UniProtKB/TrEMBL annotation:
InterPro entries: AraC-bd, AraC_XylS_family_regulators, Homeodomain-like_sf, HTH-like, HTH_AraC
Name under which the protein is recorded: AraC family transcriptional regulator
Annotated source species: Aminobacter anthyllidis
SUPFAM superfamilies: Homeodomain-like, Regulatory protein AraC
Gene Ontology MF term list: DNA-binding transcription factor activity; sequence-specific DNA binding
């Protein structure tokens, strides 16, 4: 029997890769602050998304919008395997060259040979880091797919969105993930009122500043666990109050507990 496993690389410049295999239950309901763009390699991956049951079978692709709740389990007895790339929404906006609403893809699953090939190419040297030019090319190419399939056929221009100020807030949150960040901190960094920043942040990044900060902490925690660090030490190094605090957020975001993730990551390396 093939063991369940998860393997990820380190997130670099807003892009992270994951490959996994599950024979049954995979994830409880959870959501990401990123786009999730995936390719089902074998079997069938079933999940509930926006109130409907969906399924992605071998050679089909998925595009899941930021902040949308979904779960995951095998849709056939033999389970499923897949590759997934998590892409920061601001990268999609920048690649499309517009200050607009994020493209939303209502048809979450589609057989798209071109997109599947792009995803597979991004895993050529996995888990070694992608070269910067390769990553830039991938983002540029993959951004066209949600834009083409979006229900927003005519992009709505967002007048005078503070792109650089939101970028400064995003960079500050990523750098200060191991401490408590306040709205006053972000107001000082950006010069924007906290509510103005919250609105602009969601339009350009796809989620709230707080959820983005938690996402950065969870990404750091996942990297620590994949490297074999203990759960309590990981929680402390990642800005969580304690291990139980990390566990609640980790399960809500990824659909599994930190302990199970650590075991699965270890099974991949065994």
């Amino acid at each position: 029997m093939i063991k369940d496993f998860i393997a990820t690389d380190e997130p670099v410049d807003g892009l992270q890769r994951l490959v996994a295999r599950f024979g049954g239950h995979a994830y409880d309901p959870h959501r990401h602050e990123t786009y999730a763009v995936g390719h089902t390699l074998s079997g069938a991956q079933a999940f509930r998304y926006r109130g409907s049951d969906r399924i992605s079978v071998q050679d089909e692709c998925m595009v899941i919008h930021p902040d949308e709740v979904h779960d995951g389990h095998a849709g056939v007895p033999e389970g499923f395997s897949y590759r997934m790339l998590y892409i920061e929404p601001w990268l999609i906006c920048r690649a499309l060259g517009r200050d607009s609403l994020l493209p939303f893809v209502p048809g979450v699953v589609e057989r798209d040979a071109e997109l599947a090939a792009l995803i597979d190419d991004a895993f050529t040297d996995f888990p070694n880091p992608m070269e910067p030019l390769q990553a830039d090319a991938f983002i540029s190419d993959v951004a066209a797919h949600p834009a083409r399939r979006s229900d927003d056929a005519r992009p709505q221009r967002a007048a005078a969105l503070p792109v650089e100020k939101v970028a400064a807030a995003r960079a500050f949150l990523a750098e200060e993930l191991d401490r408590q960040v306040t709205s006053s901190d972000l107001e000082r960094i950006t010069g924007l009122d906290r509510f103005e920043l919250a609105r602009a942040f969601r339009r350009l990044v796809g989620t709230s500043p707080h959820r983005y900060l938690v996402g950065r902490r969870l990404a750091h925690a996942r990297s620590c666990m994949a490297a074999g660090e203990g759960l309590a030490e990981t929680a402390a190094a990642s800005g969580f109050a304690d291990q139980s605090h990390m566990t609640r957020h980790f399960r809500a975001r990824f659909g599994i507990t930190p302990g199970r993730f650590a075991a699965l990551a270890g099974a991949r390396q065994a």
